Amino acid sequence: MSEVPALSIQNLSKTYNNGFSALKNVSLTVPQGGFFALLGPNGAGKSTMIGIVSSLFKPTNGSVHIFGTDLLENPSVAKQYLGVVPQEFNFNQFEKVQDILITQAGYFGISAKEAKPRAERLLKALGLWDKRNNMSRELSGGMKRRLMIARALIHKPKLLILDEPTAGVDIELRRSMWEFMQQINIEENTTIILTTHYLEEAEQLCKRIAILDHGEIRINTEMKDLLAQLSVETFVLDLTQPLTHPLVIDKVTAIVQPDEMTLEVTLTEGESLNCVFEQLTKLGIEVGSMRNKSNRLEELFMRLVDKNIQSEDSMKEAGL
Q1: Contact between residue 11 and residue 27 where contact means Cβ atoms under 8 Å apart
Q2: Does domain 7-227 have CATH number 3.30.450.20?
Q3: What pLDDT is stored for residue 63 in this prediction?
Q4: pLDDT of residue 36
Q5: Residues 246, 298: contact at Cβ < 8 Å?
Q6: Residue 255, helix vs strand vs coil
Q7: Can you give the residue ranges of every domain in the chain?
Q8: What is the pLDDT of residues 217-235, one digit of tens each?
Q9: CATH number for the domain whose boundaries are 232-296
Q10: Low-confidence ranges of the chain (pLDDT < 50)
Q11: CA of 15: how far to CAs of 86, 197, 219, in Å?
């Protein structure tokens, strides 16, 4: 018998009182375990979907099941499985850090005696233990973001939704947060749904991806299968010595020289980066380092969004 999905959304629609249709008959299944990326441009419907799953909004039509439990029929049971880290800070700014976790645990029927060691473990893991007796308003933005994660995990949910969890967080802190999330995912088999504007995070962490746009699911597939669709890739080559003359390289789609120390090489499927390096070596040009000009997922994402915008513009021009 197949495993019950962590999240099952069927024919979900949401139309607000002003007539705006935020979700249009959306169906989505998130399997247990691993990271799942839910991406989309601003206004795509992600916040509405998360709001419905976390019981902030009621859907116009459709159903939501969390680990097989109907959210609309048994919300108290379904929400035991769920932890949510929203974009906005929504805790009591005048409550102590540790007390915020213990209070949250109480909402799930967890006693203070049981909650305290859980809170200690989470605060230590997220680098907040030294701040446990501070008022939450005294924390930096990055610390507040980590406190939100600790609060969402205090009742040991089987499904964790992270809505832009690293927004405004510096690179080093982002890396440590993701290491902790990966640990939670592996050690406790917590399913994690991630929305983020840092698309490199989604590419590195998530095995599956769904892209939502204008209230509809445009893509729902394995990350590796989506990235395999990318036929064009641009590499940035940092040179060790300045290049003072225009360069011509055979068997590449395009080569651009932004400045005397940099080359941008665009390759399509079948073109070899090794061939580029061989030609540069023959010309006595040494490359110090190399990187992708843009994240691969970002490139695909922007193509999808641009395609949909162009399609809408064409419909408007046709009077449809």
Answers
A1: yes
A2: no
A3: 97
A4: 95
A5: no
A6: strand
A7: 7-227, 232-296
A8: 988 999 888 877 766 778 8
A9: 3.30.70.1560
A10: 1, 309-320
A11: 22, 25, 22
* Residue 88 CB-half CA count within 13 A: 4
Note the pLDDT tens digit of each residue in 129-153.
Answer: 999 999 999 999 889 999 999 999 9
Q: Which residue bears the tokens 């513009």?
A: 313
Q: How many CB atoms lie within 10 A of CB 211?
A: 23
CA nearest neighbour of 297 among 166, 181, 187, 208: 208
- For residue 268, the cross-strand partners are 232
The letter for the amino acid at 260 is E
Q: What is the pLDDT of residue 70?
A: 97
Could you give the percent of the chain with pLDDT greater than 90?
55
By three-state DSSP, how is residue 116 classified? helix
Closest CA to 236 of 267, 206, 210, 205: 267
Residue type, 157: P
Q: Is the dihedral of CA 48, 157, 186, 191 positive or negative?
A: negative
237, 244, 234, 242: which is closest to 279 by C-alpha? 237
